[in-house]
Amino acid sequence: MCFSRPKLWVHLAQILGVCAVVLSCVMPCAAQERLSLEAQIASAKPDTALASEMFGVSGRVVLLRQESSVPGWQVSTPDGTNLGYIGSSWEIARTVGYSGRPIDMLVAITSDAKIASAKLMAHSEPILTLGLSDSDIADFVHGFSGVDLNDPRSSLDTTQKNQLDIISRATVSTGVIRDAILRVGRELALSRDILDQGRINRLMYAPRTWQELLDDGSVVAHNVTLREASMVFSDATVPVPANDGDFLQIFVAVLDPPEVGRNLLGQQAYTRAVGALPNGTVSLFVGSRGLYSHRGTKWRRSGVFDRLKVLQDGVKLDITSDGYTRIDKLFLEDAPELKERSVVHIAGEGFDPTKSFRLEVTATRPAKSEDITLVMGVDYILPEKFVLPEAQAPTPLWEQTWHRKKFSVIGLGGMLFILTAILFLQEGLVRRRKFWFPLRIGFLCVSFVWLGLVVNGQLSVVQVVAFVQSLLNGFRWETFLIDPIIFVLWSFVALGMLFWGRGVYCGWLCPFGALQELVNLAARRLGIKQIEVPHALHERLWVIKYTLFIAILALSFYSMKHALLLAEAEPFKTAISLRMMRAWPFVLFVLILLCGGLFIERFYCRYLCPLGAALAIPAKLKIFDWLRRRPQCGRECRLCQPKCTVGAIDPLGRINPNECVLCLRCQVIFNDDTTCPTLKRRARAAQSGAK
Hints:
47% of the residues lie in helices and 15% in strands. With 691 residues, it is α+β, with helices and mostly antiparallel strands. The chain is flat. The strands form 4 sheets. The protein has a 5-stranded antiparallel beta sheet with strand order 2-3-4-5-6, sandwiched between helices. The chain has a 5-stranded antiparallel beta sheet with strand order 7-8-9-13-12. A 4-stranded antiparallel beta sheet has the order 11-10-14-15. It is built from 30 helices and 16 strands. 41% of the residues are buried. A hairpin with a 6-residue loop joins strand 14 and strand 15.
């Protein structure tokens, strides 16, 4: 193992230069496409035929545009009977999707506060075509029909039980759709007095700064210094340092008024926070900085925040993890840097958010005799301007998905731990050929069957393109957290590329790559003769996959739809995501690739895979060289070259890190004194010397 720092900085400078040129070319195109899409959405509106369809009536209807704080259209029959209202998610909530680009749904609600239907009108979402047909998307959106806006969470549990398969294949974009539909329906119902909003004004909005929110009491702060805490904990086993730093500075705000919530969280996070909030529940922001944590860790096991309590009129209310959301960053530029930011729900019989209440934070430290407790309280009352005269943030979809797939995530974590051990301990493993071979074959089987077919852990070049687009159009962690398997895989691969290069995924974790290697192994066992591609031709065929990746990425800045069509060069969706349940041309394409792999091992990986090309580019930054070679390799011996899975070893014995998938076959040969000619010659020389 050796460090290659000069080479690292040269590669880094080259890559940064290329990125600067590419970004300078594509950013104007991306901005122009976004403006074009926004204009297209802004001009979209329902016609009478669509309105009739959305409310399920056969006759003619009358559409009346309503301009207000929540704009929309009233839909009625020719005789004046009100059917309900239609609103646009882009117009009301400025919804953006997985790609960071605008996405628009029309939402129809009835006069009894139920969603009549919803329709996806415009989008530029790569994930909505990744394994989903138009009918799948229509079924998912139609699943919101009948949702009761008085208690949307319970209604969703009932109406969307049959949508789980769809969500599992496109959780990011369907999560955006879900949040937007619920918020648009809720705000339409509130603004038309269909839904009781209690005594909180949930429609009033004006831009505010952090300081303005503090000044008018929308955000309340309380501070306990380390000096004050040290006096209370003077007899504690672990003392608190006595200085003027913060033991706990805490900030509290009720988020339901948009003037508070939207300014603090931003448009998209606020949409997730209030979309499915039931009646009688309010969302509370709790932020803090200092030595002490307002959350602690016990809540992860118990589901109750043991350090937090809400008191009102002598009644104590627990705060549970149901509805808890961690906020990574506040939207306001002048907001202070906080250590922790949380959104929690408060609900309970008799609780009135328009009246004064107290949030208590309890700090406990062990002492010799008994524990010492410090209770810090923040008194809060909603500013009068948000209180109406004489009533809702769901658990984010990404958190629900992580909870639902926790066992899959644990299994993937175990799999990645084993792979990490294999790669770190490779020098010991490759010396044990009889142990290495079944270990590798077993790992590939798990990658194909469990990771690919069971938990759908196949990465795609579409995700690379979506990531680049999100960097240019507004990056949000929640977008990528919403599929835990893909998020964990990409996180591991991103780190692994610094240590081992692209091979950490391509050679071990790619389900389709594993399928190719297993199929070729079976072909060899059956005696199928392998085709050896001349090295000169082999190198020139590499151009195909790199050109294909650049074409897909460049085309995405012009039209995501066309880029996705070109991305069908990947067989992953057909072979892994949809398990060959697709139209015959796609299945035939997969079979042709696998047939080619019978004669040329990992045929698709070698010459056609745009994802492999995408990973090879940043993998040039890897800082370690784990694969050992001798001066005799490629000169006196070329045994490793024909054994290489993807032909990454040239006739001079050099390993091309851009093509290596880290299968370790060359390292097995390198350390096998019964196979490697150099080791065999050394052994004979040693025996002769001994004689």
